[in-house]
Amino acid sequence: MDPHRWETIQAAFDEIVPLDAAARATRLKALGTTDPDVRAAVESLLAADAEADARLASVESRLPSPAPAGPQRPDPAGPLPDLFGTPAWAVPSR
Predict the structure, then answer these.
(1) CA–CA separation, 54 and 60 (whole Å)
(2) pLDDT in tens, 1-19
(3) CA distance 42 to 38
(4) What single string gives the DSSP state of each residue in 11-32?
(5) What is the tens place of the pLDDT at every residue in 29-76?
(6) Which of 11, 32, 59, 71 could form a disulfide with 39 if both were Cys (CB 3.0 to 4.6 A apart)?
(7) Are 38 and 31 in contact (CB under 8 A)?
(8) What does the alpha-carbon distance between residue 42 and residue 61 come to, in Å, rounded to a whole number?
(9) How far is residue 40's CA from residue 9's CA, in Å, rounded to a whole number?
């Protein structure tokens, strides 16, 4: 496929993909009267896009829900003890 043809198909797809079903059908019909091959390519891309969305939705539905954001619980063990004192690099020089 030559680059100009691909740009035409890509532009048509980008224009049509956000439309609702009725508007898509109208636009595809008009596109089919001017260039049936471009219409077929765009329909193929739309079908692949819908399939990808369905697969992603299927995967997302199986993912665990994220934990709700909220205040952090305090550590029941309390703060860690200072076993080694202050490191030498953290002591200010005199």
Answers:
(1) 10
(2) 789 999 999 999 999 999 9
(3) 6
(4) HHHHHHTTS-HHHHHHHHHHHH
(5) 999 999 999 999 999 999 999 999 888 888 888 888 877 777 777 777
(6) 32
(7) yes
(8) 28
(9) 10
